[in-house]
Design brief:
The protein is α/β, with parallel strands linked by helices and about 260 residues long. Helix 1 crosses helix 8, helix 3 runs parallel beside helix 4 and helix 4 packs parallel to helix 5.
């Protein structure tokens, strides 16, 4: 059954930039209400507050929380607020778009003598992968995941590729994909669809932090059949389209949203 986004509620983890920001805007443009979590200081927090105001100007409700999305206390606070805001309606769309991890090599070289620590490795995988499972568990326990809900996690080609100093993030992306498959199977009887979205190379703040990212981006641009890189709005459009149905039959997939970038890799 085709379902309108207007009047529904979405939870966007990582709402202040990149895919989260673009998706929140696209859903709000369709009349969807947004609960957003971000983790910013000073200028970033001010920009996020301004963005929330821009969404409200579209005629929807937008409630942002400037908190660590990987924290148990954050989940408790946000989910309690979500229960009050959404009532019996619950959260129809959940987007996990957290890009916070260590970009350090596993093995030292003369150029890069510093290597990743066990604490940094654990933090990277916890924030970018495990945290999604905990959010889903707590949303379910609060009765906020109705039949027809959609859960999306942002992955990348880095889950199967080797990039400079990307090892911990690559492990996190591979783990996230495994978690999404497991959640898809366990939530299928409840009518909740769970998918990973594999975005193409996108100029986001997260990409900028990867060593030699500018050169890598140009290689990806050159080989993309569309002649350009993926934009956050491409992913947002895909989420809107995939969320226009109550069906949970499309679930457990890694869906490429890359304009065919990997076709010529």
């Amino acid at each position: 059954m085709i379902t309108e986004i207007q009047g529904s509620w979405s939870l966007v983890l990582g709402v202040s930039s990149g895919f989260g920001r673009a998706t929140a805007r696209a859903l709000a443009a369709r009349g969807g209400n947004i609960i957003g979590v971000h983790f910013d200081t000073s200028d970033g927090a001010e920009a996020a507050a301004k963005f929330a105001g821009e969404l409200r100007d579209l005629g929807v409700s937008a409630h942002f929380f400037n908190l660590n999305a990987a924290s148990a206390s954050t989940r408790s606070e946000v989910i309690a607020q979500a229960a009050e805001l959404t009532g019996a309606q619950g959260v129809r769309i959940v987007l996990h778009s957290l890009a916070f991890g260590s970009l350090l090599p596993f093995v030292p070289t003369p150029e890069k003598p510093e290597v990743i620590t066990s604490r940094q490795m654990a933090m990277t995988v916890d924030v970018m992968a495990h945290s999604l499972v905990y959010w889903v568990q707590d949303l379910l326990a609060a009765g906020l995941l109705p039949r027809g809900a959609k859960i999306y996690g942002m992955t990348s080609a880095g889950s199967t590729q080797v990039l400079d100093s990307y090892g911990a993030v690559s492990a996190a992306k591979a783990t996230l994909e495994a978690h999404l498959r497991q959640l898809a199977a366990e939530l299928a009887p409840r009518g909740v669809a769970v998918n990973a979205l594999r975005a193409g190379t996108t100029l986001t703040p997260a990409l900028d932090k990867i060593p030699n990212s500018a050169e890598y981006a140009e290689l990806c641009r050159a080989r993309n059949p569309h002649g350009r890189l993926t934009e956050p709005e491409d992913v947002a459009e895909a989420i809107v389209l995939l969320s226009m149905s109550d069906s949970s039959w499309l679930t457990g997939n890694v869906i490429g949203v890359d304009g065919g970038e990997l076709l010529t890799a």
